[in-house]
Amino acid sequence: MEAKKENGGVIAGPTNPMVTPLLTDLYQFTMAYAYWKAGKHQERAVFDLYFRKNPFGGEYTVFAGLEEVIRFIANFRLTEEEIAFIRECLSASCEDGFFDYLRGIDCSDVEVYSIPEGTVVFPKIPLLRIEGPIAVVQLLETPFLNLINYASLVSTNAARHRNVAGKSKTLLEFGLRRAQGPDGGVGASKYCYVGGFDATSNVAAGKLFGIPLRGTHSHAFVSSYMSLDEIIDKSLRRKDGSSTCEDFVSLVQTWLSKIQWSKSLGGIFGETNQSELAAFTSYALAFPNNFLALVDTYDVMRSGVPNFCAVALALNDLGYKAGGIRLDSGDLAYLSCEARKFFCSIEKEFGVPDFGKMIITASNDLNEETLDALNKQGHEVDAFGIGTYLVTCYAQAALGGVFKLVEINNQPRIKLSEDVSKVSIPCKKRCYRLYGKEGYPLVDIMTGENEPSPKVGERILCRHPFQESKRAYVVPQRVEELLRCYWPGISDKTRETLPPLKAIRERCIKQLELMRPDHMRRLNPTPYKVSVSAKLYDFIHFLWLNEAPVGELQ
Ligand SMILES: Nc1ncnc2c1ncn2[C@@H]1O[C@H](COP(=O)(O)OP(=O)(O)OP(=O)(O)O)[C@@H](O)[C@H]1O
Ligand SMILES: O=P(O)(O)OC[C@H]1O[C@H](OP(=O)(O)OP(=O)(O)O)[C@H](O)[C@@H]1O
Ligand SMILES: O=C(O)c1cccnc1
Ligand SMILES: [Mg+2]
């Protein structure tokens, strides 16, 4: 089901057909023209794509969006229609030669090095290093950032929800209706899966990416029924096909009165809502192998749960196993515990094995905080359905990924700022992750391109890029080079293949497990160290002094 990406070496276009060379900011085209006009357009430039601060008050980020970036550049070419439109947008004084130039450009002479998708990443370290003719690479800035910023933000959000929920819970992404438009919805489903969700309700995402689809039913289904008389075909074949129960409705009613009259259960409720019972029965007749019920339309413990149990027990008589319930309002901790108690009592009272283990799904405006609160209170929820807060990234609207020039014509460049965190780190660089004795990543380090790589067992000085006093010697037990070649351009490097989405997800889950727990906690997490080599440190500060004008005091 994985969307076609590499067919005989040909990389398919971006998933969203709106991703074209025009999906960029106007200023990329005006700059491209000015480069061309100055005869500068072919100058070889190196840009880094990185972010400055981890989102959600955390100390880690999941990197996602790379596959779409590679699909974009693999198919980057302007059509005649697009060129005509750019001509209309730019000033009438722009010369024809520029449009001939645009007609000929593609990304065959662009090189892209990247950290693999699904890796846990940190501020300042380039996620991608892009090298090529400056005019072309400039056009890539906005689409690259567009494809990576939200993808990484929502994957991180998903990973954070997973971190709070715990490994054993099932996490369902239910956000399509609240997502920021169709691409926001499809993107959220894809990247929440990467970040550790198990399934989505989004059918399009299931088809496009092979993400497992899951769902229950809504309140509308329950309230659309008025009475049991609406059920016309009451027959249900036993699961083993050996016989047919001609009146499943009566079987359900018999079970409901057994529950009602049971000493251990009956005290909890009197008459249940019969229209709800009709809805559940009807759903069970439609899906006897996968019967799920939304139990909070009228009253969870006085109606929804007993009605569900009556239907589930009737199904059990015919050899079927019910799927479970969903709670969508009220105190989810309390109600899940009460429902669990009820299921366990049924198991005991009627000797139905595993009835107590019935799946309880909870939904309703869930987010990291409510999951955390539920954990602290104690709950019996097995699966969480999460929509709005997850896909809209309610806790932080955007990841501030940027795309900065670090070298042109082999000359390192720097961008200065009053705000030190915004000073760019110049040079075409290599990046490494150094692992310590206990197997945890200790520090990421950037070096100049031609510096020798850090070696296992050899002490290396890791310096904070801007704070002189912050430095540490590290003797790595493992050294991992972070940037790999995903688009070799005209170089003879081999291109990394694009892994299937499931492999990206598995990488992400493994990466998150590998981190030292104090970097991952929600409250006051420890920052992960990001550093530069001594040589790069000296060079940054040399260039800084060189480029910063000396002030004059009067
Ligand atoms: N035990 C709990 N601890 C903390 N938060 C909870 C708990 N149970 C539910 N919540 C959260 O509390 C909020 C309750 O929402 P709200 O006040 O809108 O009530 P409701 O249950 O949706 O009621 P209704 O649907 O009947 O209006 C939701 O965000 C839900 O996730
Ligand atoms: O709460 P979210 O995290 O966004 O998850 C998705 C929600 O969407 C559905 O109902 P919807 O919100 O459409 O209606 P409701 O609030 O009236 O249940 C569902 O019942 C969930 O509550
Ligand atoms: O299948 C569900 O239960 C579902 C799907 C989308 C939104 N809310 C719930
Ligand atoms: Mg809602």
Automatic annotation (TrEMBL):
The keyword rRNA processing does not apply. It catalyses: 5-phospho-alpha-D-ribose 1-diphosphate + nicotinate + ATP + H2O = nicotinate beta-D-ribonucleotide + ADP + phosphate + diphosphate. Gene3D superfamilies: Aldolase class I, nicotinate phosphoribosyltransferase. GO terms for biological process: NAD+ biosynthetic process via the salvage pathway. GO terms for molecular function: glycosyltransferase activity; metal ion binding; nicotinate phosphoribosyltransferase activity. Transiently phosphorylated on a His residue during the reaction cycle. Phosphorylation strongly increases the affinity for substrates and increases the rate of nicotinate D-ribonucleotide production. Dephosphorylation regenerates the low-affinity form of the enzyme, leading to product release. Pfam families: NAPRTase_C (PF17956), NAPRTase_N (PF17767). It comes from the Eukaryota. Its cofactor is Mn(2+); Mg(2+). InterPro entries: Aldolase_TIM, NAPRTase_C, NAPRTase_N, Nic_PRibTrfase-Fam, Nic_PRibTrfase_pncB, Nicotinate_pribotase-like_C. It is an enzyme of class 6 (ligase). Keywords: Glycosyltransferase, Ligase, Magnesium, Manganese, Metal-binding, Phosphoprotein, Pyridine nucleotide biosynthesis, Transferase. Its EC number is 6.3.4.21. One of its GO terms (cellular component) is cytosol. Pathway: Cofactor biosynthesis; NAD(+) biosynthesis; nicotinate D-ribonucleotide from nicotinate: step 1/1. Catalyzes the first step in the biosynthesis of NAD from nicotinic acid, the ATP-dependent synthesis of beta-nicotinate D-ribonucleotide from nicotinate and 5-phospho-D-ribose 1-phosphate. Helps prevent cellular oxidative stress via its role in NAD biosynthesis. PANTHER family: NICOTINATE PHOSPHORIBOSYLTRANSFERASE. Belongs to the NAPRTase family. This is Nicotinate phosphoribosyltransferase.
